Every structure is written in C-alpha cells, then in structure tokens.
C-alpha cells in the first residue's frame, strides 16, 4: 500500500502532493513501482495535527480518487463517515480508518459492490495520543480491541476486514517494538477470526528516527529508509500481508522475497 497524503502538513510528505496533478502523478509513479493499493488521505493524523473541515478534505481527495481509481485499487484514509462514503462513491474500494469506527460506510458500500475496511488501533486522539500512552499489556489489549471491532464489522456485513496495530498511534517506543515483535500472534488471531489479514504502517515514523539517532532527537524523516525497510521486512516475515509505505520501489523489492516463488 503506497501512501499519498494530499495535505499541507503530513509529517513526511506534507505539501508535496497538495495539487491534484502532483498527487495523481505520484500515485501513478507508486503504481509503476509496484504498489497494489494507493492510500489517499486529506487530513494528517500525525501527533498534534489540526483537524480539517469536511469540505476541505473532500476537495483534496475526491479528484485524486476519481483520477487514480481506474488505474489501481484506491483506499481512503479518513476518520469522517461522510468522507468515507463520498470516497467510495468516487471509486475507492477500501476504507482505512484510524478511528476504527467507520465500518458502517464500508458495510453500506459492500451491498452495492464490495468495500473493505481497515481497523487501526489508536489510544486517544491524534491531538493527545503521544502525551502519556499506557497499557498493562499492549499486545493483548491491542489484539482484543481489533478483534472486537473486526467482529462488529463482520456482523454489520463487511466481508473484507483488515486489522492494523497502529504503530505510533498512542504508543511509546517500547509499545511499538513489543507490537512488532509479537506480530505473528496478531496474524494468527486475525486469521482465526476470519479477517482478510493484518496491515502494518511503520514507514518513516518517529520511533525509527529515534532508533537511528540513538539520542532524544530523531533523525530527519527522509533519513529513515533503513528502519522503514527493516520493519516492513520484519512485518512480512511475521505473516503480515500488507505494509503501508512511502518508499514503494524498495519495499516492493523486499516484498518479492515473500512472494509465490518462495
Ligand atoms: N499511519 C498513518 C496514517 N494512516 N493507516 C494505517 N492503516 N496504518 C498506519 O500506521 C497509518 C495509517 C500516519 O502516517 P502518514 O499518513 O504518513 O502521515 P500523516 O498522518 O501525518 O498524514
């Protein structure tokens, strides 16, 4: 899954693809590099990001979805029900939902031809989530939450449900690493529950910058490729079937190691 943020303020690619033509060109570039899905977002979810009015988010994403959906599967990265609905009508077939609450939109679309839903775990909201995340058992709590949401979505009629542990969404470094090390358990639980699979997004995230620098100040976002690739490979070898990334070409090369020839 290639990331396409049509925003001025995303933590890594903010401002690069705010113009429709630039966004469409980058989406097509990621398809050429091997992306199976392009995930289009019009509102940043980085820590402390400001909320965007619904009409602004729609203006940003709809023309890009309309242009790309005839070339590649498109997912909409949103937490707003109206944006999910409009995006599905414009050609998206997957709702990528960091609020883990929008399955009704996917269910409604499923009746008319089939939409999938990605439930992402987040503790708190983007504004506050990194203030003081706390879990008694992060792996257990994240897994239980995701399976409960997946069951609700399936009961509502969504046939394609993905779960994502939400790396960086209300998680300390230790929480992120624990979730990454225990991915095989989440993969097994998701499979037993009838999910389509597990999605993981680590690409260029802050904890990788901290691991790279070894000090309190993270390395710059465009200097986190090694960690992004290492964690994508770790996820894939753990049985994860979708990784959400900025750097499609190199990740697709790594992903081919786990392909049908293996
Ligand atoms: N991370 C981000 C946004 N959406 N969706 C899923 N399924 N998993 C993730 O880990 C995930 C996500 C945050 O990254 P990004 O979109 O690059 O930045 P921003 O939120 O600043 O736009």
What does this structure look like?
- Helix content is 44%, strand content 13%.
- Helix 2 runs parallel beside helix 3.
- The longest helix is centred in the middle third of the chain and has 18 residues, at 138-155.
- The chain is an alpha/beta fold.
- Strand 2, helix 2 (54-68) and strand 3 form a beta-alpha-beta unit.
- It has an 8-stranded parallel β-sheet with strand order 1-2-3-4-5-6-7-8, covered by helices on one side.
- The protein has one domain (2-261): TIM Barrel, CATH 3.20.20.
- The protein is globular.
- It contains 10 helices and 8 strands.
- 6-hydroxymethylpterin-diphosphate binds at residues 3, 5, 7, 10-12, 41, 44-46, 77, 96, 98, 118, 120, 164, 166-167, 199, 201, 244.
The number of strands is 8
Query: What compounds sit in this structure?
Result: 6-hydroxymethylpterin-diphosphate
Q: What's the CATH topology name?
A: TIM Barrel
Per CATH, the class reads Alpha Beta
Helix content: 40-55%
**Rg from alpha-carbon coordinates:** 17 Å
CATH evolutionary superfamily: Dihydropteroate synthase-like
The main β sheet shows up as:
8 strands, parallel
* Anisotropy-based shape: globular
Distance between the termini: 21 Å
- Point out poorly predicted stretches: none
- Report the sheet-strand fraction: 5-15%
- Kindly report the spatial arrangement of strands forming the biggest sheet: 1-2-3-4-5-6-7-8
Structure classification = alpha/beta
């Amino acid at each position: 899954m290639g990331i396409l943020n049509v925003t001025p303020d995303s933590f890594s690619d903010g401002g690069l693809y705010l113009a429709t033509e630039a966004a469409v060109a980058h989406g097509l570039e990621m398809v050429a590099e091997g992306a199976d899905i392009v995930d289009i977002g019009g509102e940043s979810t980085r820590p402390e990001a400001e909320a965007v009015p619904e009409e602004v988010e729609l203006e940003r994403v709809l023309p890009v979805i309309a242009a790309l959906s005839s070339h590649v599967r498109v997912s909409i990265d949103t937490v707003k029900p109206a944006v999910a609905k409009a995006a599905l009508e414009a050609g998206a077939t997957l709702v990528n939902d960091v609020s883990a609450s929008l399955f009704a939109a996917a269910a409604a679309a499923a009746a008319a031809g089939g939409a999938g839903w990605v439930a992402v775990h987040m503790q708190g909201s983007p504004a506050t989530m990194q203030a003081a995340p706390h879990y008694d058992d992060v792996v257990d709590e994240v897994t239980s939450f995701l399976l409960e949401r997946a069951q609700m979505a399936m009961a509502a009629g969504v046939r394609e449900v993905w779960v994502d542990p939400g790396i960086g969404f209300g998680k300390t470094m230790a929480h992120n690493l624990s979730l990454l090390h225990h991915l095989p358990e989440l993969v097994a639980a998701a499979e037993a529950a009838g999910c389509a699979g597990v999605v993981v997004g680590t690409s260029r995230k802050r904890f990788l910058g901290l691991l790279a620098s070894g000090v309190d100040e993270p390395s710059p976002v465009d200097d986190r490729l090694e960690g992004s690739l290492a964690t994508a490979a770790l996820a894939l070898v753990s049985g994860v079937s979708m990784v959400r990334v900025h750097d499609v070409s190199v990740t697709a090369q790594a992903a081919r190691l786990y392909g049908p020839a293996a």
